């Protein structure tokens, strides 16, 4: 609220600028206050907490899969605490389960997690991290936090949404990993409980507004899915997902560039206050 107010003041010439702003009083003004203050604050928190809880529960599947692939409960939990990128963790567990070397599994996980570095380039301008907090913020830059943050209408809401998503998802993911790892022998296969579909369903929910935006967006989504499905039988886990991202490049090449917006018209004598 302070940033917006000061920005309007600067744009209008400061506090001394003569601008007539209509004011409201009575019940109408009182009813407008919650909508202007509570709504924008509650929405990013609601979005972040809801997505964090939904996606975090898939840590049950990772904990069970990690123990089933040969990792100990402690190793599975430490991996969730330090790595905190579900796709890379599943890729590592899958590589170990299929008899792959640890070095190869780690290399595949790092390759798949490298997309978070690209997210960081975009998120730096939004979150504006400073000091030692940059390390903590960088740890929380993943698919879900990036999607929720960039969906917000302003910088203040974006930072609030990032904190809510990161905190909820990190706590839920690690707690679910612990429960899944301890209960691996009792739960059986995560696929039998349907836990393996939580992650893909969450990703679909994140991109659904984009898929409804136009034909180009739907074409990019279908092309990316086709690339991933075609490459999955032949390439290590994680690589098909990275290859599918080339569909976005194809969509950018075929989409015509938006024309530059014309500059605002110069104020006339009447607007400048001249006779």
What can you see in these coordinates?
The chain contains 16 helices and no strands. It is an all-alpha fold and 275 residues long. It is globular. Among the domains are: 143 residues, no CATH class; 43 residues.
Summed up:
With 275 residues, the protein is an all-alpha fold.
Chain-wise SSE layout:
Blueprint: H1 2-11, H2 27-56, H3 59-68, H4 73-82, H5 86-97, H6 102-113, H7 115-127, H8 133-139, H9 143-150, H10 155-182, H11 184-187, H12 190-193, H13 198-211, H14 215-231, H15 239-244, H16 246-254
List low-confidence stretches.
1-37
- As a percent range, the share of helical residues equals over 70%
The mean pLDDT is: 73
H and E order = HHHHHHHHHHHHHHHH
Query: Outline, from the CA principal axes?
Result: globular
Largest sheet: none
By helix and strand content, what is the structural category?
A: mainly alpha
The radius of gyration over CA amounts to 24 Å
Number of helices: 16
N-to-C CA distance:
37 Å
Number of strands: 0
Percentage of β-strand residues: under 5%
């Amino acid at each position: 609220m302070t940033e917006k107010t000061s920005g309007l003041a600067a744009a209008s010439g400061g506090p001394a600028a003569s601008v007539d702003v209509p004011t409201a009083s009575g019940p109408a003004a009182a009813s407008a206050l919650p909508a202007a203050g509570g709504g924008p604050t509650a929405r990013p928190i609601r979005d972040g907490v809801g997505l964090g809880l939904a996606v975090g529960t898939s840590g049950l599947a990772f904990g069970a899969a990690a123990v089933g692939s040969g990792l100990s409960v402690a190793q599975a939990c430490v991996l969730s605490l330090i790595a905190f990128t579900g796709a890379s963790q599943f890729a590592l567990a899958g590589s170990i389960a299929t008899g792959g070397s640890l070095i190869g599994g780690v290399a595949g996980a790092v390759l798949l997690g490298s997309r978070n570095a690209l997210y960081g380039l975009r998120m730096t301008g939004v979150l504006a991290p400073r000091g030692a907090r940059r390390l903590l913020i960088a740890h929380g830059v993943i698919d879900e936090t990036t999607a929720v943050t960039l969906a917000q209408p302003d910088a203040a809401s974006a930072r609030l949404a990032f904190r809510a998503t990161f905190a909820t998802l990190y706590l839920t993911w690690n707690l679910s990993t612990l429960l899944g790892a301890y209960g691996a022998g009792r739960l059986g296969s995560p696929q039998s409980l349907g836990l393996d579909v939580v992650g893909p369903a969450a990703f679909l929910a994140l991109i659904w507004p984009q898929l409804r935006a136009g034909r180009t967006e739907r074409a990019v989504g279908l092309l990316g899915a086709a690339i991933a499905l075609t490459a999955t039988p032949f390439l290590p886990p994680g690589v098909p997902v990275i290859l599918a991202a080339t569909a976005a490049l194809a969509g950018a090449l075929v989409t015509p560039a938006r024309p530059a917006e014309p500059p605002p018209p110069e104020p006339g004598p009447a607007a400048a206050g001249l006779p």
